[in-house]
């Protein structure tokens, strides 16, 4: 079987190349995937891992259920990339001959309670990486998506799943499985339907983190038109009410390992040196801010995010994203410019009151992201005055 998988990778037989929905998928999955778009083949593929403790077995029918859910999410990402003008591109998945996603089953060395929410990811990842080191043909990128079955104890069960890691950490992310985790409940106004949106929305959102995405919100007018961004509170709306991906998110994905087109040989995330910044300033122009940057030439994308306090981890869901217009200067530098109408920040409650932050996320051509926060007070930005943003202090990652 492993040899077959390796051959399939070599031939590029991924989801993209397989047009029809697998016949063993349930009718509801067939229906939901009927309007699938043909996706471009990718050079790299997500490592999908189902991880169980040494005292547990995978939940019934997990291969079909998780495959249906993952292919639906792959289509969602692909359609949002296309809507944002970036082509029919999504993250690569390795498929088995029957059309299921190739899910790598890894059995932990310890009982399942060892791999708990908050701490269990460390040993889990160590064991997953050891397994992939032993089976290198199964490692098809640097991105691992680890799914663990819920605990079953006095607190957790199929109607209240939990206990296991559920978050993103760099190129790794964690989601969970439970008995009713089945796409047939998608959008249903039932207990299982509401439960599915919560955990399937979380599955799609955490995967976004694992694919390099930070939290972000859309502008006031985008949200009015399209609903909730997946990387804002879309984990609570996915499959239930309109959910979309911002252009800022899609532009990060476009330069990430799993979205690289077939034939791409780039070694991703190798750059640890932030790009040189030659100019960085912003100014107030009427009821808008304008940001201008001049950067080293290997920068391919710049997103700006406007955020109000608090600035701690996981308080950034409401950071409004504005992707820059990119240009090339005659000296071979990269220019980035963005116009931010203040009216589009309407959902940021504290924008006119106290310190807010402008976050600059810079992405280089091999997918690395460098982020730089510029705090400022809008009331102190003089009309038509230019503020120099000073020397950048970068954090790698998002
Ligand atoms: Zn999140």
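^ structure tokens above, recovered residues below v
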């Amino acid at each position: 079987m492993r040899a077959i998988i390796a051959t399939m990778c070599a031939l590029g037989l991924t989801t993209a190349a397989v047009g029809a929905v697998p016949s063993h998928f349930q009718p509801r999955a067939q229906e939901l995937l009927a309007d699938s778009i043909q996706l471009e083949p990718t050079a790299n593929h997500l490592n999908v891992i189902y991880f169980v403790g040494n005292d547990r077995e995978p939940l019934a029918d997990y291969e079909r259920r998780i495959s249906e859910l993952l292919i639906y999410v792959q289509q969602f990402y692909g359609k949002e990339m296309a809507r944002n003008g970036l082509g029919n591109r999504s993250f690569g998945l390795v498929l088995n001959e029957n059309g299921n996603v190739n899910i790598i089953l890894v059995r932990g060395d310890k009982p399942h309670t060892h791999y708990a929410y908050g701490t269990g990811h460390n040993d889990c990842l160590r064991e997953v990486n050891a397994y992939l080191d032993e089976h290198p043909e199964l490692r098809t990128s640097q991105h691992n998506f680890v799914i663990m079955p819920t605990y079953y104890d006095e607190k957790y069960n199929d109607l209240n799943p939990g206990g296991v890691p559920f978050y993103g950490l760099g190129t790794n992310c964690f989601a969970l499985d439970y008995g009713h985790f089945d796409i047939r409940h998608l959008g249903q106004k039932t207990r299982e339907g509401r439960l599915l949106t919560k955990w399937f929305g979380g599955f799609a959102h955490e995967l976004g983190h694992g694919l390099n995405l930070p939290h972000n919100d859309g502008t006031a007018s985008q949200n009015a038109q399209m609903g909730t961004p997946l990387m804002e509170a879309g984990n609570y709306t996915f499959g239930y009410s309109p959910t979309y991906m911002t252009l800022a998110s899609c532009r990060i994905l476009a330069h990430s390992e799993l979205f690289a087109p077939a034939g791409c040989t780039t070694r991703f995330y190798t750059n640890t040196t932030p790009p040189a910044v030659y100019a960085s300033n912003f100014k107030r122009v009427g009821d808008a801010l304008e940001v201008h940057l001049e950067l080293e030439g290997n920068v391919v994308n710049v997103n700006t995010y406007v955020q109000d306090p608090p600035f701690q981890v996981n308080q950034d869901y409401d950071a409004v994203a504005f992707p820059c217009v990119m240009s090339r200067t005659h000296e071979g530098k990269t220019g980035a410019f963005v116009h931010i109408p203040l009216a589009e920040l309407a959902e940021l409650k504290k924008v006119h009151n106290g310190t807010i932050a402008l976050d600059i996320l810079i992405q280089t051509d091999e997918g690395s992201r460098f982020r730089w926060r510029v705090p400022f007070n809008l009331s102190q930005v003089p009309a038509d005055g230019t503020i120099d943003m000073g020397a950048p202090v970068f954090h790698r990652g998002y």
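Residues 205, 209, 215 surround zinc ion (CB under 6 Å).
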